[in-house]
Design a protein that fits this description.
Elements lengths: L3 E5 L5 H6 L9 E5 L2 H9 L5 E8 L3 E2 L1 H8 L5 E9 L2 E5 L10 E4 L4 H11 L4 E4 L3 H9 L5 E4 L10 E7 L6 E8 L11 E9 L6 H10 L5 E8 L7 E8 L5 H13 E11 L17 H15 L4
Parallel strand pairs: 1-2, 1-3, 7-8, 7-9
Antiparallel strand pairs: 3-4, 3-11, 5-11, 6-9, 6-10, 12-14, 12-15, 13-14
Amino acid sequence: MPASYAYLGPEGTFTEAALHTLPEAATRALIPYVSVQSALDAVRVGEAEAAFVPIENSVEGGITTTLDELVAGAPLMIYREVLLSITFALLVRPGTKLSDIKTVSAHPAAQPQVRNWLKNNLPDAHWESAASNADAARLVQEGQYDAAFAGEFAAALYGLEALETGIHDAENAQTRFVLVGRPARPAAPTGADKTSVVLWQRDDHPGGLRDLLGEFATRGINLMLLQSRPTGAGIGNYCFCIDAEGHISDRRVAEALTGLKRICLEVRFLGSYPRADLKPGEVQPPRAGTSDEEFVSAADWVARCQDGRF
């Protein structure tokens, strides 16, 4: 495992809190960076061996900044994922009252998670985005904004107090974080794994997305994330970020990726890694006809037919 981890900082972010749930984090140097991009670039240039960043939340879906950074630039690979339950506190300078708040700040991904609370409690407050929730707390400390949505644990770090706690629009909201490093051999399958890829179509045509998804569907592979992202090549040009159940060493997953590589302009493999939401033994068995044994048996039958031994 890597000797040092970069993460979305500064200190006091939910990313840092999630990172500390990894047992190996206690023996690694943890290096805060000002943005997702800078944390991932630190891995690309060798300043850090891995980066820990948010990639998805249960309210708004994929974190576009992270997805776009994984789509572009030198390839990186996901090794681990962590799920963290998220509730926000409204952090203010001591003595600030709710009626004093005219400006609030947080990471852009936080806004959809507190939108209704803001409408009901601070309808006239102006929202300003920050590089992270902890950075928003720092800006409040410096007097640039009146309040920040962040973890309650960040208050002491920045000399603030939590005016309100337990803020969330959706019950049981979670954010998914990933540990990202340079490409290498994926870890061995656990029986509860996920495979992430990015797909680019050869051309825009009717049923193009259906063709891509069909490579998974015909092999009984369930998808856990499907998000389109613009390629930058003009309006209507998109690539697709996909998380699929299974490991690249599973025959059904390997054959699906083979089919996608054949029909796509480009396929970027982002890794096969253990799922955070299920343990081995909790995953539903493959659909009939899609187990490794059945793929091997079918391939053996074709070989025997080719030899005239059917």
